[in-house]
Amino acid sequence: MQLEIRNYYEVLLLELLSDEGLLDELPADYLADLCCVTLNQLPTRYIRHLVDTYFFEDYEELQKMKTEIQQALEKSRAFLKENQKA
User: Fold this and answer.
1) Would 15 be classed as within a structural domain?
2) Nearest-angstrom CA–CA distance, 61 and 66
3) Are 6 and 47 in contact (CB under 8 A)?
4) Domain span at 56
5) Can you give the pLDDT at residue 85?
6) Which residues make Cβ contacts (< 8 Å) with residue 30, sequence separation at least 6?
7) pLDDT, tens digit, for every residue of 4-63?
8) Contacts of residue 80, Cβ cutoff 8 Å, sequence gap at least 6
9) C-alpha–C-alpha distance, residues 37 and 29, integer Å
10) Which residues contact 22 (CB under 8 A, 6 or more apart)?
11) Residue 20 DSSP symbol
């Protein structure tokens, strides 16, 4: 049995990466590492239906989540940059 659940932070992170053009710009291996390191800094928020989430979500909460993602993404990029030199 396959359940249709996903982490909403994943969805928002991928939207951010797409909006910034990074999905097309960065190598796939680096992108996968970047997503993992970023998501490991964030809480999980599981959803079943994305359309329901868009309908019921609070604007302030969404903005807070996007800010958390942006901050985690910046830290992750710095972390990966530093550790690629080693």
Assistant:
1) yes
2) 9
3) yes
4) 6-85
5) 67
6) 80
7) 888 999 999 999 999 999 999 999 999 999 999 999 999 999 988 877 777 777 889 999
8) 30, 33, 34, 37
9) 12
10) 31
11) T
Let me know if residue 76 belongs to a domain. Answer: yes
By CB atoms closer than 10 A (0-12, 13-18, 19+), residue 80 is: middle
pLDDT for position 63: 94
Q: What tokens does 57 get?
A: 């979500």
If one counts the domains in the chain, the total is 1
Within 10 angstroms of residue 69's Cβ, the number of other Cβ atoms is: 21
DSSP track, 22-72: HHHHS-HHHHHHHHHHHHTTS---EES-HHHHHHH--HHHHHHHHHHHHHH
pTM score? 0.87
pLDDT at 86 over 60: no
